[in-house]
Amino acid sequence: MADTTRAEVMAELAALEDPKARVVNERHGDDHGVNLSKLRALAKRLKTQQELARGLWETGDTAARLLAILICRPKAFERDELDAMLREARTPKVHDWLVNYVVKKTAHVEYLRLAWFADPDPVVASAGWALTTERVAKKPEGLDLAGLLDLIEAEMKDAPDRLQWAMNHCLAQIGIEHARHRARALAIGERLEVLKDYPTPPNCTSPFAPIWITEMVRRQHAK
Hints:
By secondary structure, this protein is mainly alpha-helical. It has helices at residues 3-16, 19-27, 36-46, 50-58, 62-71, 79-87, 92-102, 109-117, 122-138, 145-155, 161-177, 182-192, 209-222. The protein contains 13 helices and no strands.
């Protein structure tokens, strides 16, 4: 796609910039001020445009990269390209969207899950844990759930924030989905107390694993 088209989209993103939205987003580590509903509306209008998506990603701008993720063709990316994109994703929202909206839809997902899971960079490793959590919930065959609990028990307490969050999600998912590991998952959560005091809005479930597991299991049984 010609640079002029990318320039036009960048100008449109600049026009959508809202200083108040930027303040809120920056609290979460996301340096952009575009309302996500408006961003999605723009993506819907642009439809899938892989070359434009690549061009927007190359700008390094967070709003442009989020838009790129929404208009790209996930299966068009090579494995090494996705690895490089994750490593330069920078902000939490770009990282999360890239994993959930792109990587999960490719044939490279299992290779990247294993590669990222063991990566020394904790932010990259958090992507490996996120993909592992997806497998815990949807395709657990072949996973060593007890081994995952061993790792969580040994490493989650002192893990950096984003890796800790991803490990905690995996802990909760194991407890929710796998009854024979539930008692141990609950016990690990109680002992480590990770996110126990996390501020949780009314009508939302706490990310503290014992509360999260108990509530989700209750809902399953209530169906």
